[in-house]
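Explain this protein:
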Amino acid sequence: MIARLRERLLPDAEPRVIARLKRGRHWRKLLNYILVEFQAGRGARRMPIGKPYWLTVDPTNFCQLKCPFCPTGAGRGVRDKASLSLEHFQHLMDALGPTLIHIDFMNWGEPLLNKDLWAMVALAKERGIDTMVSTNFNLLREGEADAILDSGLDRLVMSIDGLEQATYGKYRVGGDFAQVIANLKTLVARRRARGLLKPTIVWQFLAFRHNEHEAGRVREFALALGVDEVGVTPANLPFRPGIKDEWLPTRADLRLYDPESFPDSPPWQWEAAKPSEGAVAAQVKVEVYAAAKKTARRRCNWPWAGIAVNPDGSVSPCCSVEEQEYDFGNFFTNGFSRLWNGEKYRRAREHVADYAAGRSETIPASRHACERCFSIGQSRFQFPHSWLSEGEK
């Protein structure tokens, strides 16, 4: 009966998250998690109580690499370059720290270019927050391996898409494979010397056509270096001419897209995506294998449970939207309460709830990022297994 009641009141809440927060005696975080999930389950437009429990914060929005499909690497220049100050991060922690469960230190830049990064991680750990940093790991200053260990970081995800310079460098343009491996060995050696288990070191391998032949060997290669986890992930590709033939893997298990329907331009540029006056555009679909497995629409977590903060305090709809024109406001100038229940957040919640209930479709021509989103319903926060299982008997 209790299980049925929970399913009715908290349809998308994860029992393992609730159990983990109980084991850790994180009572305030647990209460907030339940309040947020209850309101999300009801499709609430306003959030009078409850704060986001998931934060993506960008320590910098610039990078030393030139990855061609990254807006930063491609030099799209959609935002002024900035670094998050320790003072501003402290402000974030004062406002959200007591209720946050997880922080991703990453998004459009290279986090390690911010010299205050490890102090920020330490501040988060003081508040019992699970932490992750995603990096290209081309940079490791003298003594920084110990700074990483001292911070208490939970997970360090290294983006290494190859097993030699030729394959690695095709996408990680400007990256030095040998330097990355040397930095990795330094961190593993210091962690071993100090007898520590954290951070969990993750090798993230994005699969493309040019490196798919290495996908079967990357796990053995990485584990031999002392890496804890290996992830081989199909890459998100831009819809442009020539992309399919040069970048889309031939192996079906390493690609997200159907080669037969892969378009040469994004859906919102198609003639079919232009709505007639006063009408809502029909949803334009691109076949994605992962999406094809879904049998029902789900709510995206972001409008109720997550917040994506850029280095200057501007707040994006989610971690996938880089353009400044879609911002919901600024955390440092608007204030959290005004921002969290502002018109743009309310509109996002309304559309996502209506979409999940089958009352609306994607609107490609909309100027609101959530209304034109083609991944709507597919974005769910994934808590790390290592965090979920911590303290289990």
DSSP finds 16 helices and nine strands in the chain. The longest strand covers residues 200-207. The mean pLDDT is 88.
